[in-house]
Amino acid sequence: MLETLFEDEHLVAVHKPSGLLVHRSWLAKRETEFAMQMVRDQVGCHVYPLHRLDRPTSGILLFGKSAEVARIMQPQFAERGIHKEYLALVRGYLSEAGELDYPLKEELDKIADAQADQEKEPQEAITCYRPLHQAELPYPVGRYDSCRYTLVAMKPLTGRKHQLRRHMAHLRHPIIGDTSHGDGRHNKFYRDHFGVQRLWLLAKALCFDHPVTGERIELETRLEEEWLRLFEAFGWSTEQQAYRLLEPLGAD
Length: 252
Prior knowledge:
Blueprint: E1 3-7, E2 11-16, H1 35-43, E3 48-49, E4 58-64, H2 67-78, E5 83-91, E6 98-101, E7 126-137, E8 147-156, H3 163-170, H4 184-194, E9 201-209, E10 216-220, H5 225-234
Parallel strand pairs: 4-9
Antiparallel strand pairs: 1-2, 2-4, 3-4, 5-8, 5-9, 6-7, 7-8, 9-10
């Protein structure tokens, strides 16, 4: 059963673990569990995914309980009315906050997108980011005697495929565990040293206007235990409150 973060008669939001597909795909025929079917069984009605999370990304996933609600919500995503924030662990020391405006060429699957326009122009892609914590571990990875990492908060202003992963790679600070755009040496180090194989990317916060009531909904999920174990090894706080991205309700 998936952890429910919000539910009413129109919407349901859950915490998706890393490794779980949102819905069935012919590219993963052997899989038997999908977030969409699991949520449907939990709430007792058909649900409509309002956005997507890549399979290796964990965190907040929002569904509508009717096609009408899904239709009303779509413009918020298209017109940047949705506030999304992520946490990621990246290679190296990222010292300053910034905004990356770097267009991305659409990533196409060789089979599924065989008929798509292969020469399509790069699309606008904008990501805001800010460093939160830094750590240096006394282990040689690659040509250095130690390895450095930064915990980064990121807010995508556009929704391109693998945008956060590709933008951080462009900044030369790839997300740890990213097998497509990351650094294989550091990925291997995390697998071997910490015994965890995953993409260190979490959809932490989601804010939107309720499609029926108009109320502003603010959701923030927890850090999973594997994150807290890693932070303990880094000497960082293991208190959930230390990593909130949204101000608590009632804060000045």
